[in-house]
Design a protein that fits this description.
By secondary structure, this protein is α/β, with parallel strands linked by helices. It is built from twelve helices and 14 strands. The protein folds into two domains: 245 residues, Rossmann fold (3-Layer(aba) Sandwich), CATH 3.40.50.300; 70 residues, Alpha-Beta Plaits, CATH 3.30.70. The protein has a six-stranded mixed sheet with strand order 6-7-8-3-9-10, with helices on both faces. A hairpin with a 2-residue loop joins strand 4 and strand 5. Helix 3 crosses helix 4. The two termini are 32 Å apart.
């Protein structure tokens, strides 16, 4: 199995604060690794080390066959990076942005323009190609940003929370673009706090917290670790739900948790429908009426909550962005030094 990305024992400190405390990763070529974790978990620090923007204090990393510490220039020639925040030049048109990146990659002016035209078409930006990027919607700007990371046709692509702030339709469109790149053999390391995103795109998922890997597996494997199916009972009011908690607890021998404005009681049901039937009968006998009963499989949200003790956050906190789009040797070498 050929590994496109491999990291062993990565450590990084900022002052007395440990950002990474021994992170190991192994990403086979042509696959997607989803890197999950709460704010401050070490996701962006990991990406910066792997893309040569930071030096690890200890450990070793190899990307596209090159050691990030001893051969950073070769690494940069084989990777693309799209950070959390778009780094396109809003004064330039979409076509000009991509041609500029191609020039920085030393493609030559003619080849850079030709590559820009290819990407404009591929990413559905033809109608807006000659408009200034400042007129683009959020989804269009993110597509342009991702296109810029692909100008040099890199075999390895780092995406640091690429769909943050996008509406659902734009997020779905960007997911499709990522799938197309993977189908062409590109290896992707994707950091995200959108658990649905990891479920949709990742072949394997690594969960990090406190600078350490706390879980690793496919989405299905991680969900199985959470355990049984869950019963969700929706009540008309929070008061009704609160009154149902002791009733459910006596029947199921486990107190449910309340969520969604206090109206939904949730608990594992290892015995499946038998437990559901007993709870429904018990609630009716107690004069408590539920609006809805739903049995569902564990989700990545359940996995995240089980592993980290807190729910996933939809938006990143301030100051966590990588703030760069390309990894051209010309543009990045100074910051990586």
């Amino acid at each position: 199995m050929e590994l496109a990305i491999q990291a062993e024992g990565l450590h990084k400190h900022f002052g007395r604060q440990a950002a990474l405390s021994g992170v190991d990763l192994a990403v086979p070529a042509g696959t997607v690794l989803g890197l999950l974790g709460p704010n401050g978990a070490g996701k962006t620090t990991t990406v910066k080390i792997l893309s040569t923007l930071l030096k690890a204090d200890a450990g070793r990393a190899v990307v596209a066959g090159y050691d990030v510490a001893t051969a950073p220039r070769q690494v940069r020639r084989h990777i693309g990076l799209s950070g959390q925040f778009s780094a396109i030049d809003e004064r330039l048109t979409g076509r000009e942005n991509l041609a500029l990146v191609g020039t920085l990659y030393h493609l030559g002016r003619r080849a850079a323009r030709r590559r820009a035209d290819e990407l404009i078409s591929q990413f559905g930006l033809t109608d807006a190609a000659d408009r200034q990027a400042r007129t683009y919607s959020g989804g269009m700007a993110r597509r342009l940003d991702l296109a810029a990371a692909l100008v040099a046709s890199p075999p390895v692509l780092f995406l640091d929370e690429p769909t943050t702030g996008l509406d659902p339709a734009s997020r779905q469109a960007l997911w499709q673009v990522i799938r197309e790149q993977v189908s062409n053999g590109v290896t992707v390391l994707l950091t995200t706090q959108y658990l649905e995103e990891a479920d949709q795109l990742a072949d394997r998922i690594v969960v990090v917290d406190g600078g350490q890997v706390i879980a690793d597996g496919t989405a299905a494997e991680l969900k199985r670790k959470v355990g049984a199916e869950r019963l969700e009972i929706t009540f008309r009011t929070p008061e009704d739900a609160a009154g149902a908690v002791p009733v459910i607890g006596r029947i199921a021998a486990a107190l449910p948790t309340l969520g969604r404005d206090g109206r939904v009681a949730s608990l594992p049901v290892p015995d499946g429908l038998a437990t559901v039937g007993s709870i429904a009968t018990g609630l009716a006998a107690a004069g408590l009426e539920a609006d809805d009963f739903a049995v569902r499989q564990p989700s990545l949200d359940d996995v995240f909550l089980s592993l980290t003790g807190r729910p996933a956050e939809a938006q990143p906190g301030p100051g966590t962005g990588s703030g760069t789009t390309t990894t051209s040797e010309t543009t990045e070498e100074g910051r990586a030094a």
